[in-house]
Amino acid sequence: MEKQVNKPFKASTAGPKGERKAARDARKNNPNAVGNSKERPVSNPTNNPKAFIWNSRQKMMRRMHRTAEMQERSVHVPMVDRTPQVAPPFVVAVVGPPKSGKTTLIKSLVKKYTKHKLAEVKGPITVVSGRKSRLTLIECPNDLNSMIDVGKVADLVLLTVDASFGFEMETFEFLNILQTHGFPRVMGVLTHLDKFRKLKRLRKTKKILKQRFWTEIYQGAKLFYLSGVIGGRYPVREIANLCRFISIMKFRPLAWRNQHPYLLADRMEDLTDPNLIQADPKVDRTVTLYGYLRGTNLQPNTRVHIPGAGDYTVETVAMLNDPCPLPDKVRKSLSGKQKLIYAPMSDVGGVMYDKDAVYINVPGSFTRNGIVPDRRPGQDSDASEAEENGGEVSGSEHDGSGSSSDDDDDEDRRGKTPAGREEEFLPSSDRYNQVQDIGRGGIGEKMVIDLQDASATFADQMQDASIQIFSHSAPLKSQVAGDDESDYTDDGEGGSDDEQGFDDSDDDNDDNDDEAAEGDDDGVATGRRSRRARRRFEAEAEPADGSESQEELAFADTDEELESSGAEDDDAYTDGAARWKAGLVDRAAESFKLINRRINLMDLVYRPELVADRFPKGYGSSSEASSESDGVEGSDGSDDELLKPKYDTTALHSALSVVDTCKASIKAERLAVWDDEAALESLRHRFITAPVDTGETEEVDNAEAGSDAESELMGDFEDLEAPNGADSRLDDNESNDDGDDSVDGDETVVDGSDSDAEPKPTPVDEDLDDVKAREALARRKAELTSKFELEVEGIYESDDEAGGPGRGRLGLYDRVKSDMAKQRLRNEAEFAEDSAELRAMVEGYRAGTYVRVLLHRVPCEFVKHFNPKFPVVVGGLLPSESNFGLIRVRIKRHRWHRRILKNNDPLIFSLGWRRFQSLPLFSIDDGARNRMLKYTPQHMHCLATFYGPLTTPGTGFCCVESVGRDSRYSPEFRITATGTVLDLDQSTYVVKKLKLTGVPEKIDRNTAVVRGMFHSALEVAKFTGAKLRTVSGVRGHIRKHLTKPEGHFRAVFEDRIRKSDIVFLRAWHRVEPKRYYNPVTSLLLAGKKADWQGMRLVRDVRRERGIPVPSQADSEYRAITRTHQPAVPLKVPKAVVDNLPFDMRPKLTHREAAKSAKRNKDGSGHSASSVAAEARTTTATRAVFHEPEGQRNAVQLERVRIVHDGTIEKRAKRRAEQAELRHAKRQKEEAVSQAIAKRRMKEFIKVNDIQQRKRVARSGQGSK
């Protein structure tokens, strides 16, 4: 078979690329040739930048303007970057209507990231998505409360849309909720594409949905297509593409989240005393919530709000180990162990350790046979019963004092999980240690296996067991303590004391459990320690340094062994009695010295690693006695591995048997150095009250500040106010520029060793150390300065780079960003050397920390009706946000809401973290006043004032009428209004129009007495001087009230009014908003969380009860009957008529003049104006006589009119004749057409009759 011959590569020899390659080869072959010098070669003449400049100044100006506009358009308001070094997981919310593929999408993403199959999606699910990123996946249920809460905390929203159905109402509601709360990143996901049979329809649907999606989000928004479901999940290639876009997504901090701390609770526990719950089931609970802290720092004793539950005060905050940490080393890809998942509500994980309990999550179908192939023959019926119950764990850790009290404790400490399975609540240490169970054989299942393999119950084992109090003492039998057992059993207080002692011992083992867990690479728990018992697992871990240990327990398997060991126990007891007395005087003297010493509480509490080295030698190390005891126990081969000690503590108890172990064990020699006054004087500069000295004192202080002894005793505190600021915590590997040894190389180290011969520094060495410390501090400052310049590189520009003088000056935007960067570096440098605990005390718990929040007085309904499918958000409140007052906002009715909003109708506001119901008072700015509105205006904003918690101005909000989807309003859009907070105040000035009406009772020229407007003289006196107005527009004002009748007053108008006029008084009345605040407590409801019902609308109450709308008789519309008023003749005064010119005076005949004079003489006649009107009427009806010229014109006009009338008559006659001719012609044509139609009909009938006869004849022949 011939080999395949591929086309060889042909290097380009022509064109610009070939020319550059030839020139490069020539320079390489002949470096001394002309043109290969260090001088810059001459550029190609075709690349002359001056040849491609704009030819027109206008074009250049437009281009520059466009470039400047694009730059300004891309600039956002600078915000402080609060992202910590280890950022918390980004919250990815999957939102969509029901049956749109949300759960399937989450399962597919979890499978892609962690190779884990989720059985059920409940609560937040945290996964490691990359080397430096984590994601918290959460499914948003189809509930308006959950949609609002998720929209406030989500960093990325995956909006699932059923492509076969299209966009639904819930999708648009959620997008409008996002618009008011910051609008995070949104990516659309189209599902159910496999339901399309025709490819053409599929393409058209994709195009339509994409355009609609772009309209709501922005042009170019990402929209993914998931074709179908394969094996319960979406295709791997499509999910990988989606994960790729999620990984490169950049999240910009939102204003509200950048100012408030918050956490999304991924776990909730009830810590209420079971006795209190049994006495009163409705007692308030003590609850702990767990989650990653986000936003700003969370201070202890901070007020928080849980949407749906109310406001609470954080009692304590504990910083826990990260349950889903990032990889410790940077690798190209994640290994299987690094693809972690943390989903406690979804039953993913093995053992969860907490301060108050140990939780073992066991699958419902768990049996020992599912993990261990061979069943041990020694397994009894109790273990089998435990297997049949689905792996239920019973029993608690206790001492050997009795079994009855322990059984009671077991019943009290056993609870129910959300899924209905029982869990064992085992007391444990204060520190939380979350252990991830990997695979089927996790630590939790191993614990259950050990419990199932036990040959007898725990109470039976304790009755037949013997306990050894000290390693050198004789073991005690349970029968010996029988008398004491009855006392503890019968006395109720003894049980409480025992529990208290148990908790105290757990508190002591707090830090050490964490250290032991950190030493395990696979993240498997090393077990729990207690003062009485120790459970030993199959997978043991290395004990950490400084961890406390337990008393060794030795149990006898049978009665024969117990009897045979009696003599040995007696000998051991006598030997032990002699051993513990040895060195008693020396230890007492040392204890007396330590009593008078002051204990550094900061080191004792927050720096346990400094206290660890102060314990005597042999602490935590195995001795010969412990190894022998282990060998004896290991050779027994019994089933009591569960109670074997894990660490050897013989050396510790032998050395600290006298000293109280809850205090730090410190050698007296270590503290002797501070007996010297000079040593104490060296600490003066570390206090703010110390005077700032110079000279020799300064040198001595700096020299002493560089010692390890002082640094060790002072902890991690840094003297920021020292005169020279010498830093005593320089790294060991820090060297000078010349390559010298480290600064700390020649320093004197004071430790707790037995050697007393230690070299003391000479004055020359002290000066040398001082100089080196100064140089090291200078180098550190230079490094910080260079780091800052590199970080803000690009903000500053020199004059040359900017293109001229003045161009390099910083603008407002750049100055603000540079100030933020400087402040951030200052903060980092200030807290760089402090521990995490100290930083938490000073600045609060930082974002990215996994914390445990303890809350008191939580309603019992929150625990009883807790549903992990509904998100629980713990939002921190600023100090001012806990106060209540009047909030003035700008509001606008949503364009998709059908009805306008009525004043004082209850609305549910989503403002900040809260969801509450209030009564808004609508108004509009009317110049100098805010005028109340009865309804919201159409297509425009208005003002609203309501009572509620004070929120920062500029915060957006949205309103809904009901959080549920009522059947009456199911097709309607539920977002009623949106707006922004404008102002906060405790009072407001909103006025409404007040219109009072009255009627005139008596009229005297321009003065009238008005009645019916007021009821008393006091009311009239209050409105004295107020402006009045009549219906006809006559203006006036109130002059004075009348004594009788009551409420009447005298008013003056600018003209005479009539009795039929109505007098109006327009005034303004102040309206106060109703102080109503009702938080939405949806998380306290059982069943559907959307069934929360607050104050209902008036129309809903009337519709439910069948109450008609009340109506007043005066408010009803009536038919208006208007009476006709005859026109009054115009009266012209006689003086005016006499002054008129003669041609404008009315002309009276002699008869009319005589009648008028007679009427005037009698005094009963009309006035001069009426006479003038009569004169005008007479003149209009008088005969007119023309002049000769006028007569000729009139005759001529008459002739023209006659000719015109004749012409019109002829035209009309001609039209009539033509119409008759057309009618006759039309009748003739119709007669012809009718005759033709008649003839054709006859022919058709005749032919049809002949054909019918033929068919009948043929049919008759066929029948014969």
TrEMBL record:
Keywords: ATP-binding, GTP-binding, Hydrolase, Nucleotide-binding, Nucleus, Phosphoprotein, Ribosome biogenesis. One of its GO terms (biological process) is maturation of SSU-rRNA from tricistronic rRNA transcript (SSU-rRNA, 5.8S rRNA, LSU-rRNA). GO terms for cellular component: 90S preribosome; nucleoplasm; small-subunit processome. Its main location: nucleus. It catalyses: GTP + H2O = GDP + phosphate + H(+). Residues 88-252 form the Bms1-type G domain. InterPro entries: AARP2CN (IPR012948), Bms1/Tsr1 (IPR039761), Bms1_N (IPR037875), BMS1_TSR1_C (IPR007034), G_Bms1/Tsr1_dom (IPR030387), P-loop_NTPase (IPR027417). Residues 1-51, 364-436, 473-573, 614-644, 690-709, 719-767, 1152-1176 are annotated as: Disordered. CDD domains: BMS1. GO terms for molecular function: ATP binding; GTP binding; GTPase activity; U3 snoRNA binding. It is found in: Nucleus, Nucleolus. Gene3D superfamilies: P-loop containing nucleotide triphosphate hydrolases. Residues 620-629, 1167-1176 have a biased composition (Low complexity). Residues 17-28, 412-424, 1152-1164 have a biased composition (Basic and acidic residues). Residues 482-523, 540-551, 557-573, 630-640, 695-709, 733-756 have a biased composition (Acidic residues). Belongs to the TRAFAC class translation factor GTPase superfamily. Bms1-like GTPase family. BMS1 subfamily. This is Glycoside hydrolase 2 (Mannanase, beta-galactosidase). It comes from Tieghemiomyces parasiticus.
